Task: inverse folding
């Protein structure tokens, strides 16, 4: 078998280039097809990553811990105590990259002109600057400086809607822990520019300030966590669940179902696209290879007449297909890597930023690729290409040796 | 001496029912070792069909064919391939050579199929090229050779494995008179010097005139068989 391969491979390589035009057509079909799969894959990876960056790094993070019932009724009645004991150990033992405590309660914010519903957040600015992008999104003023900071940070769009501004005062109202309406006046110390949905509904002050405002001792609404490796999501969340069975521990996939669905179906999308592309490629490959076989019917007859067995004819034509498709695959890989490399700076969709927000994606999509994905999809295309080319190869092996006797004149 | 080829009652029918056509009817033929025989006759007389039967390229509808003592009747495709490879050499009218191979590689190819080692097959191929007067053209591809040279390479390929018989179907049909004459000279020389057995299907008078045995066919039957 290896001996036959060694003899047939050089012959097959020459046969590949017998009809340069047809070879070039097949190479274009295979390389462009593979390029589209690899580039689409890189785009999808970038898109999902962008969505995660946009959605998770704002407020959701990789996971959250709440008291049971908080997700159904996010009010002060369903707050929890700060982590302690086994949970605190789990949060600090290296499974978790970072974590932070937050107070979060529904309320309203009032300016001289308008009153709007918001979610009032009390945060630890130092921890937030490590796990959230919002502290880095300040457009005007400053971010919070400590848990006791009594200034307030508003979203840019909310500021516009309230017709207020940096340095002005707003009134925040929310139900305190004793059931009375708490009402405080805050200085607007900073304005952040982020996702419009976040800007409209989330305002931030220091953690202790918020607890004082709501009449709490040290209770919090949630602990948010970030993980060192996304691949460890399930096991890390399980570790936290084991450490705090009395609490409601959820991964981001349970907190943001749209994003989770997009992430889970990414593999399906790419295989659907691969299926579509390969169907078109298969038509091209089979068509050109069948043409090649029909043109060489007499030659295959000659080889059979000379004593070449059908299996060897099949092997020879299959090697031709494998080489031809292999070259196309290599070209496709080069093309894809070049395309991805040339878009390293990202695809700027700032002009469609609001539309991108609606699909929870950032305004710049950074195409990304995984080398194992390139190898995997290229190999799949190569093997499938060889498999569909078995049909013309089989036709060649069935050529009758009598074809050699057929006269052209 | 036992014949190289024996045909007994060979009949070949194409189609069935009212459309059935007898291409060969009860043909009996012996080809002896060292024969230089031609199959003559007009188109449709059954020359190529008989060559197909003798060359193990097709099965007769009735009758038997034996080549070098081996009956072809019960052989499977793979066994027929093997028999063609080892016992029969072919020279065809057209498309004799694989275009992507050089002259030497075209000849070597048959030896490679027989499992002969690289050095040995290269030596034998060069010797075969020398025998047909094409020394020095071993690296030429068919497209860079004349029709006559290509047919010489085909003859060298047919002879390189020392087959029991060489079957040629209209070998001079595409050649000019000079090339045709040289090819006939070559085949006769190989017949004389090496005792190679030839069975040539042709209606070319240049071949028929120099044939040592002329078998005339008409309507699928042997009309006459004469030695010169």
Result:
């Amino acid at each position: 078998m290896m001996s036959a391969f060694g003899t047939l491979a050089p012959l097959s390589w020459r046969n590949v280039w017998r009809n340069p035009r047809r070879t070039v057509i097949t190479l274009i079909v295979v390389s462009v097809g593979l390029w589209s799969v690899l580039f689409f894959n890189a785009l999808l990876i970038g898109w999902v990553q962008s969505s995660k960056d946009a959605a998770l790094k704002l407020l959701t993070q990789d996971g959250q811990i709440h008291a049971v019932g908080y997700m159904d009724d996010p009010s002060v009645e369903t707050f929890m105590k700060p982590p302690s004991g086994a949970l605190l150990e789990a949060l600090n033992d290296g499974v978790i990259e970072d974590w932070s405590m937050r107070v979060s309660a529904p309320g309203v914010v009032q300016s001289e002109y308008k009153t709007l519903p918001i979610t009032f957040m009390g945060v630890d600015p130092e921890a937030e600057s490590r796990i959230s992008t919002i502290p880095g999104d300040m457009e005007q003023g400053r971010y919070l400086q400590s848990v006791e900071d009594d200034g307030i940070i508003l979203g840019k769009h909310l500021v516009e809607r309230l017709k207020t501004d940096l340095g002005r005062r707003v009134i925040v109202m929310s139900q305190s822990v004793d059931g009375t309406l708490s009402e405080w006046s805050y200085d607007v110390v900073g304005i952040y520019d982020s996702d419009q949905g976040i800007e409209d509904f989330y305002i931030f002050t220091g953690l202790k300030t918020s607890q004082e405002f709501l009449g709490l001792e040290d209770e919090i609404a949630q602990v948010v966590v970030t993980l060192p490796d996304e691949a460890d999501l399930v096991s890390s969340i399980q570790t936290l669940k084991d450490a705090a069975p009395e609490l409601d521990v959820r991964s981001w996939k349970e907190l943001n179902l749209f994003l989770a669905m997009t992430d889970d179906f990414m593999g399906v999308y790419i295989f659907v696209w691969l299926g579509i592309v390969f169907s078109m490629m298969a038509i091209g490959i089979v068509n050109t290879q069948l043409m090649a076989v029909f043109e060489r019917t007499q030659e295959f007859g000659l080889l059979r007449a000379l004593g070449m067995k059908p299996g060897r004819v099949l092997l020879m034509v299959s090697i031709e297909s494998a080489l031809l498709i292999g070259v196309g695959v290599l070209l496709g890989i080069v093309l894809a890597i070049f395309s991805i490399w040339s878009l390293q700076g990202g695809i700027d969709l700032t002009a469609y930023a609001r539309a991108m927000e609606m699909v929870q994606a950032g305004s710049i999509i950074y195409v990304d690729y995984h080398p194992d994905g390139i190898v995997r999809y290229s190999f799949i295309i190569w093997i499938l290409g060889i498999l569909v080319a078995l049909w013309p190869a089989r036709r060649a092996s069935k050529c009758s040796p009598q074809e050699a006797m057929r006269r052209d004149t | 001496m036992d014949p190289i080829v024996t045909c007994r009652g060979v009949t070949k029918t194409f189609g069935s029912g009212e459309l059935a056509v007898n291409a060969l009817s009860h043909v009996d033929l012996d080809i002896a070792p060292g024969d230089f025989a031609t199959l003559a006759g007009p188109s449709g007389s059954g020359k190529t069909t008989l060559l197909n039967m003798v060359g193990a390229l097709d099965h007769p509808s009735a009758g038997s064919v034996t080549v070098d003592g081996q009956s072809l009747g019960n052989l499977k495709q793979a066994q027929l391939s093997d028999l063609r490879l080892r016992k029969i050499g072919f020279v065809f009218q057209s498309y004799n050579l694989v275009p992507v191979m050089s002259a030497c590689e075209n000849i070597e190819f048959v030896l490679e199929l027989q499992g002969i080692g690289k050095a040995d097959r290269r030596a034998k191929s060069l010797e075969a090229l020398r025998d047909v007067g094409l020394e020095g053209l071993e690296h030429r591809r068919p497209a860079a050779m004349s029709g006559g040279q290509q047919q010489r390479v085909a003859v060298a390929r047919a002879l390189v494995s020392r087959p029991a018989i060489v079957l040629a179907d209209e070998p001079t049909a595409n050649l000019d008179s000079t090339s045709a004459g040289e090819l006939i000279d070559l085949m006769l020389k190989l017949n004389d010097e090496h005792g190679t057995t030839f069975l040539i299907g042709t209606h070319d008078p240049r071949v028929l005139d120099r044939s040592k045995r002329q078998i005339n066919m008409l309507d699928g039957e042997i009309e006459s068989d004469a030695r010169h």
Summary: The first strand of chain B starts at residue 5 and ends at 14.
